[in-house]
Amino acid sequence: MAYIIISGYRDFEYAHKAIQFGVSDYLLKPIDKNELILTLEKMRTAYLEKTEQLTREEKLRNFEKNDKQRLRKLVFKEVIRQQKNTSRPISIQYLNETYKYHFKEGIFQTVMIKIDGDRI
Question: What's residue 41's pLDDT?
Answer without folding.
Answer: 95
